[in-house]
Amino acid sequence: MDPIKMVDLKGQYVRIRNEIDRAIQDVLDGTEFINGSPVHTFSTHLEAYLNVRHVIPCANGTDALQVALMALEFNTGDEIITADFTFIATVETIALLGLKPVLVDVDPMNFNMDRQSIEKVITDRTRAIIPVHLYGQCAPMEDILDIAKNHGLYVIEDTAQATGADYIFRDGSTKKAGTMGTIGCTSFFPSKNLGAYGDGGALFTDDDALAEELRSIVNHGMKVRYYHDHIGVNSRLDSMQAAILNVKLKYLDEYNRTRQDVASHYDAAFEELDSLIIPSREQYSTHIFHQYTLKTNGIEREYILKALEKHAIPSAIYYPVPLHRQKAFQYLRYQDKDFPVTEDLCRSVFSLPMHTELSMDQIEYITRNMKKIVNIQ
User: What is the pLDDT of residue 175?
Assistant: First the structure.
């Protein structure tokens, strides 16, 4: 059995090496390294996949969030609601623009924002909600969109971990993660379900005028070359990454199904273990398992992680420290008691290897040893 990796980008590359190498060589031959035809081709293909009118590529997922906030022209001190249990990029972009992050607790089962937590913190300064589709499963968007409509708020979706997931509305209709709010934002960081071989990101919208503003902002505020209508940034997806992503987009649904299959094997092995709580599945969303994240129940997480390490099984904690306790956000003056669910999750969650190259031998090795670890504790 090959060594188990938390993420196996090399194994994935080997399977599509010929297509990737050809795409890279085409970029080198064409020498359109910035805003070249591969960027436009990828944008068009991703628009068709997501069924959204506009995809605006940018340099990374953090820039996507910042550009979205810039385009909506908020004022200093305006409040943006988002989750306490997420990666820092979701919140740091709010703070960088002089806006106020308003953090909310999350659902104890699916780890995403819930309706009650949002409604409790809305004020006359609230301007937008940023739901995070954590670990590959959508936040409860129908409720969030209702709240936003009732209060006149924008919705900016952080779909960096859920590109390709489907949201199922109560009437049976579906939409892709990132295409339901005012703007969707994603990352193409290499380990993502749709990952580049470097940094990359994109914004999604169905609003023609807003799309024009977003395209301008990512390119120094220009709509016409050398005429700068806005204060913008330099945030462009380079042609090499676009060409790679265009190849990998063809395989995204297959990759997501493979992750779901791995998750099903994990579930079957762990669902009867009292000391572990498997990831929840919500009826309103497919789960594409950017991460497979378990919760401990009456067992020490550190004991499990050390035991896994002894068996050469990698693991990770996403996330060990809530945002409200980060030194950078102490000025918000939150207290631990404001976020009981997040506090519990930061003490109890851990993630197992989850990627497209896990073999059945590796999956069985992981599950067999995990059951031994928790049963002998």
Answer: 98
Per-residue confidence (pLDDT) for residue 377, from 0 to 100: 57
* pLDDT reported for residue 376: 67
pLDDT for 119:
95
- Collect contacts of 360-366 with beta carbons under 8 A, ≥24 apart: 360/265, 361/1, 362/1, 362/2, 362/4, 363/262, 363/265, 363/266, 365/1, 365/4, 365/311, 365/313, 366/4, 366/266, 366/313
Report pLDDT digits (tens) over 309-348: 999 999 999 999 999 999 999 999 999 999 999 999 999 9
How far is Cα 198 from Cα 60, in angstroms, rounded to an integer?
A: 9
| Cβ count within 10 A of residue 15 | 12
Burial state string for 146-168 with b = 16 or more CB within 10 A and e = fewer than 16: ebbeeeebbbbbbbbbbbbbbbb
Show the domain range for 361. Answer: 252-376
189 plus 45 within the same structural domain: yes
Q: Give residue for tokens 């390294």.
A: 33
Query: Is there a single domain that holds both residue 52 and residue 102?
Result: yes
